[in-house]
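Hi R.,

As promised on Friday, here is the backbone we talked about, encoded as structure tokens. Could you run it through your design pipeline when you get a chance and send me back a sequence?
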């Protein structure tokens, strides 16, 4: 299939992505430190559907592990992965840079600084306060990058915005390093958060993240056609009636809000926003009418699978999920660089 061939989303790619998501989700809730029978898990999940009643055979303890630990964690992984992948695709489209990722404008550095401040102050390594600090820090960093790009006289062009994002990210990272030096006894906790995790003991993080994913991903889906037009260039898109400044602002805001919310509950999980959109681009074409919706589905499947590996490969211990995504993403990113050079 030609990389530029499909301009519309067909049932085949969607069905394939949904099947992958279902397989990863079932595996995620069935496997772990406490193994659960896959058939019984499927029966328990089906039993929760309306009008259907099936005896799964799970004990009360196994059902508690399933519904209070496994299912919320898989749901959280699906939401985070979907948001990071879709935001990455949005950034790649709006900046016309296939190597862009959701952290391009400094949201990771800002979130890292917010989380570091809370941890260094001894206010905990999780919970609502840490989540809000990371979210606020990420938003502040991107607003600062956007303001810096606008003030430079470049009209917030893609190149100006990228340079402003690099400058702001460097400044926030320097502040984070300074805070870590002042509270060196919390370095381990800070790095554990930075490497990413999907630890959850209930549905609170899922309920907190879901509205941001719905709004942000919805905005990106609505503007996927505009991203195709932007790909031909600023001037050409303007002659076709696209308000490039407005579209860029909407896509950046939606991607930033979703990314900041995802990072605030999961830490800094890298490479999802590069690996998933590019895998879809290579398999199904370069149209954002295809890339955006498939990134939403496949991103969730990818992070659920990565989390499953993170919590089973060295069990009973657990690896940071960022280690797994980097292990997959770094070689993939290197391959992309070689392809782009050719």
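Update: got your reply. Pasting your designed sequence below so it's all in one thread:
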């Amino acid at each position: 299939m030609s990389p530029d061939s499909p301009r519309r989303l067909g049932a085949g790619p969607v069905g394939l992505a949904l099947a992958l998501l279902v397989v990863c989700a079932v595996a995620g809730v069935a496997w772990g430190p406490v193994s659960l029978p896959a058939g019984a898990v499927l029966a328990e999940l089906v039993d929760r559907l309306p009008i259907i009643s099936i005896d799964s055979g799970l004990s009360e303890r196994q059902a508690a592990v399933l519904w209070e630990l496994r299912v919320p964690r898989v749901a959280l992984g699906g939401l985070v992965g979907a948001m990071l992948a879709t935001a990455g695709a949005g950034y790649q489209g709006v900046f016309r840079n296939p190597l862009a990722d959701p952290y391009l404008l400094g949201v990771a550095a800002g979130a890292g600084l917010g989380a570091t401040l809370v941890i260094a102050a001894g206010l905990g390594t999780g919970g609502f306060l840490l989540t809000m600090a990371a979210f606020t820090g990420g938003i502040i960093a991107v607003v600062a990058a956007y303001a810096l790009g606008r003030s430079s006289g470049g009209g917030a062009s893609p190149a100006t915005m990228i340079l402003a994002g690099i400058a702001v990210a460097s400044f926030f990272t320097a502040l984070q390093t300074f805070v870590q030096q002042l509270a060196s006894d919390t370095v381990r906790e800070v790095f554990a958060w930075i490497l990413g995790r999907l630890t959850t003991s209930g549905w609170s993080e899922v309920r907190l993240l879901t509205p941001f994913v719905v709004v942000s991903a919805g905005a990106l889906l609505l503007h996927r056609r505009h991203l195709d037009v932007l790909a031909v260039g600023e001037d050409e898109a303007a002659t076709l009636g696209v308000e490039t400044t407005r579209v860029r602002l909407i896509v950046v805001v939606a991607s930033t809000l979703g990314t900041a919310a995802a990072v605030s509950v999961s830490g800094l999980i890298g490479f999802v926003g590069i690996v998933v959109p590019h895998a879809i681009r290579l398999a199904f074409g370069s149209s954002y009418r295809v890339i955006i919706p498939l990134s939403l589905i496949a991103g969730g499947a990818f992070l659920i699978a990565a989390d499953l590996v993170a919590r089973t490969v060295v069990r009973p211990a657990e690896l940071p999920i960022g280690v797994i995504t980097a292990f997959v993403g770094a070689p993939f990113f290197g391959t992309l660089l070689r392809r782009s050079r050719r």
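One thing I noticed while checking it: Confidence is low (pLDDT under 50) at residues 1-6.

Thanks again,
M.
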